[in-house]
Write a structure and sequence with these properties.
The radius of gyration is 28 Å and the shape is globular. Helix 6 runs parallel beside helix 10, helix 10 crosses helix 11 and helix 11 runs antiparallel to helix 13. The protein contains 13 helices and no strands. The chain folds into two domains: 41 residues; 138 residues, Tetracycline Repressor, domain 2. With 227 residues, the protein is mainly alpha-helical.
Length: 227
């Protein structure tokens, strides 16, 4: 038996069907847009510059702007100067090389760090984009990769410091000088042999650089534990 009078039933409001939740992620919002256009950002300029670097083409901010379809002033606002853009591109390339060298190396302590050095320098000597860049404009290139005014060298030193600190924390290294200075010395030795072709006219020498740096690392090794 229906306990609700017919008149009351006729006044019932229909249940509201909840609205579908709006997209919450950037991807979802892009996929539900009525148009297919996407906004060009600083990352697009960076990725395009990396492509130019990899094929050995000079990075020109005006040309980047033309290819991206944005104003030249916009790209300058995004990336700063041409020198700053090169610094970011090369820093990213060096970071990848350092990570690869670390994964490809074996051992612990001074042995590991020396192996990382050998693998890294071998990769950088064989890097066609790096060699092309240095040959295109040697003075400008050395200012990017070796000058304290550029972030590249500082980031490489920081990466080396992190490797040393990791081995020290594991008990394999016991640096006799502060780690910042040690990392700086290592990088300077590496640079002098890596860019020797443009600094002195002699070819890069990975083996001599590795031996010299290996001796420095060995002098910082923790005493071996007696069994």
């Amino acid at each position: 038996m229906d306990l609700v009078p017919a008149a009351a039933r006729s006044k019932r409001k229909p249940k509201r069907i909840p609205k579908q939740a709006l997209p919450t992620t950037p991807l979802a919002r892009l996929l539900t847009r009525s148009d297919s256009t996407t906004r060009i950002t600083a990352l697009d300029a960076f990725e395009l510059a990396k492509q130019k670097w990899l094929i050995g083409e000079r990075i020109d901010i005006g040309k980047l702007a033309d290819e991206l379809g944005v104003a030249r002033a916009t790209v300058f606002r995004w990336v700063g100067t041409r020198e700053q853009l090169y610094s970011e591109v090369i820093s990213a390339a060096f970071a990848q090389s350092i990570e690869w060298a670390r994964r490809a190396s074996t051992g612990t302590g001074a042995d590991l760090l020396t192996d990382v050095t050998r693998n890294l320098l071998t990769a950088l000597v064989a890097s066609q984009p790096l060699r092309t860049f240095i040959k295109q404009d040697t003075e400008f290139a050395l200012r990017i990769v070796m000058s304290s005014a550029s972030p590249v060298e500082g980031r490489v030193i920081a990466a080396v410091r992190e490797l040393i600190e990791g081995e020290a924390a594991a008990g394999y290294m016991q640096p006799k000088i502060d780690v910042d200075s040690l990392a700086y010395v290592i990088v300077r030795i590496a640079e002098s042999f890596l860019y020797r072709d443009v600094l002195t006219g002699d070819p890069p020498d990975v083996e001599t650089a590795t031996k010299a740096i290996g001796m420095v690392f060995a002098a910082q090794a923790a005493p071996k534990r007696k069994r």
